[in-house]
Design goal:
Elements lengths: L1 H23 L1 H28 L5 H23 L5 H22 L7 H26 L8 H24 L3 E3 L3 E5 H21 L5 H29 L14 H22 L2
Antiparallel strand pairs: 1-2
Helix pairs in contact: 1-2, 2-3, 2-5, 3-4, 3-5, 4-5, 5-9, 6-7, 6-8, 7-8, 8-9
């Protein structure tokens, strides 16, 4: 009972901060997702460096977090100056991403570790696992030029409903394991329960968030269901490979930021691809 109360308190506080940040204005939105990006990168590299070197904290971890955050901050500065997306800005962001990755190779020249390319692969994985999805979320928020919190709000709601629905249905009637080798507690019953609730919610969201059509929200709900679930499983695979239960204890009762935002981070590039390229 105490653990449940702790989880609920953390969940309500987290939801309040997220919603207040993205609804307030673009500065609040940038601050919220900058925090998600930085803390998630920190958790990611702490777990991997400890597995590789046996040390929990390192100057390398700080350097990797800084380098991994730079492309996201570059995107933020672009949109603070000009609220539109064009080819030149995408090209500039791509160059910044390439430069951030290149620094890793240069740094490892002075490294004394026996497996420098293992460290490089960890660092690059962190960028594509955390930073790129956060950049895609910014692109979604500025999909028509000016900042619009409604697409992000809708995706967050769908993601929460999918996760919560899968947990509630799976814990009550779940029998058939979805992926027992990676996540023994997830079931097909939970998956379909979350899917049905998410699809119903997409219909309601389409009526209240006047930003996309009904069919668009249904497609986005399917993206959340499929790729959000895969993101959860991939993060479970990540933790299982390192023999850790949670990525951190930053969120009491919930683990770390990667534990809470794994579905959103993995799903975001696919949602961005639909919104920015297919829909438009």
């Amino acid at each position: 009972m105490i653990d449940l109360i702790k989880r609920l308190k953390t969940a309500f506080l987290l939801v309040f901060i997220l919603l207040a940040g993205i609804v307030l204005d673009q500065i609040g939105f940038f601050l919220v997702f900058a925090a998600i990006c930085i803390i998630s990168l920190w958790e990611f590299h702490c777990a991997l460096y400890y597995d590789l070197t046996g040390r929990k904290k390192s100057k390398r971890i700080i350097a990797n977090v800084i380098l991994g955050t730079l492309p996201f901050l570059g995107v933020v500065l672009f949109f603070l100056g000009h609220s539109y997306i064009d080819a030149s800005r995408i090209f500039a962001i791509s160059i910044l991403l390439f430069l951030s990755i290149s620094v890793y190779y240069i740094v490892e020249l002075a490294s004394r570790l026996e497996k420098p390319f293992t460290i490089i692969s960890y660092a690059i994985t962190g960028i594509f696992y955390v930073t790129v999805p956060c950049i895609m979320i910014v692109f979604i928020a500025f999909h028509e030029g000016d900042y619009d919190f409604r697409p992000i709000l809708g995706l967050l709601i769908l993601n929460w409903i999918n996760d919560t629905g899968a947990y509630l249905v799976g814990s009550q009637i779940g029998r058939n394991k979805l992926f027992p080798r990676i996540s023994p507690k997830k079931t097909w019953e939970g998956f379909w329960g979350g899917a049905v609730l998410t699809l119903i919610s997409s219909y309601i969201i389409a009526n209240y968030l006047n930003v996309f059509g009904r069919n668009d929200w249904i497609i986005l709900a399917v993206i959340v269901i499929i790729f959000g679930t895969l993101g959860d499983l991939i993060e479970s695979m990540f933790k299982r490979s390192l023999s850790v239960k949670d990525t951190s204890t930053f969120l009491p009762g919930h683990g770390g930021f990667l534990d809470r935002f794994d579905s959103l981070l993995f799903m975001a590039p696919f949602a961005a691809f639909y919104i920015l390229f297919i829909k438009s």
